[in-house]
Amino acid sequence: MNAIAVLGGSFNPLHVGHLRLAIEIHEAFGPLLERVDILPTAHPPHKLEQYVLPFSVRVELIGEAVAPYPWLRCNPLEGERESPSYTWDTLGLYQEREPGKEIFFVLGSQDYVQLPGWYHGLDIPRRCTLVVAPRGFYRPEQFIWDTQHMWPDTRLGTPLTANGLCMEGSCGRIIFQPLPWLEVSASLIRERWLLGRCIDYLVPMGVSRMLESRREEIRHLWS
């Protein structure tokens, strides 16, 4: 148990799809993981911040959702920086603060194929083990092709789970791990909430209660 799985995002707001993904990651890699971190971005580099709830509010909402799970926590690390929340920089902070821990950075296949356009995107596996969760029709064959296109010397290695794949090379280790996805989006939740529609079972109950208790403040930020 010397690894930490990290799920990053704006979480505007955190919903059941995010929470379920954290649970699936924990169950897939359980014996290897010390914990799973939900890592909200403070300053998302590719999103308009005027429609994103303040970092402190998102941290509170996530805290409500993770409270029942002792292995799951909200990590407010990115709130310490004023600069854009680039994954490369954040992983460097993890290396400094979690010495000796392996970091499993989880991302969906739609983000994985865009790594060449990220800040230091092709260097990211040097600071973590990438865990790619496929969405839609993203197949293992496509993962292998995309991985070797980005890092030509990668080859199939020993998988960590019964139904996963592992690619290894000079860049590091990259894992393809099929996981169930719930088709829920934060934009759908914001839209329904602003219209006064019920969002039960789309977000954890604690998140729903907090959104309602701060309705005027949050309505102004999301409108």
TrEMBL record:
Q: Which domain of life is it from?
A: Bacteria
Q: Which Pfam families match?
A: CTP_transf_like
Q: Which residues form the Cytidyltransferase-like domain?
A: 6-192
Cross-referenced InterPro entries: Cyt_trans-like, NadD/NMNAT, Rossmann-like_a/b/a_fold
Q: In which pathway does it act?
A: Cofactor biosynthesis; NAD(+) biosynthesis; deamido-NAD(+) from nicotinate D-ribonucleotide: step 1/1
- What class does this enzyme belong to in the EC scheme? transferase
What this protein catalyses is: nicotinate beta-D-ribonucleotide + ATP + H(+) = deamido-NAD(+) + diphosphate
Q: Could you tell me the Gene Ontology terms of the biological process aspect for this record?
A: NAD+ biosynthetic process
Entry EC number(s): 2.7.7.18
MF terms per GO, please? ATP binding; nicotinate-nucleotide adenylyltransferase activity
Q: What keyword terms does UniProt attach to this protein?
A: ATP-binding, NAD, Nucleotide-binding, Nucleotidyltransferase, Pyridine nucleotide biosynthesis, Transferase
Q: Where are the transmembrane segments?
A: none
Say yes or no: keyword Nucleotidyltransferase present.
yes
- What's its job? Catalyzes the reversible adenylation of nicotinate mononucleotide (NaMN) to nicotinic acid adenine dinucleotide (NaAD).
**HAMAP family on file:** NaMN_adenylyltr (MF_00244)
Family per similarity comment: Belongs to the NadD family.
Instruction: Please identify the protein, giving its name as recorded.
Output: Probable nicotinate-nucleotide adenylyltransferase
The UniProt gene name for this protein comes to nadD
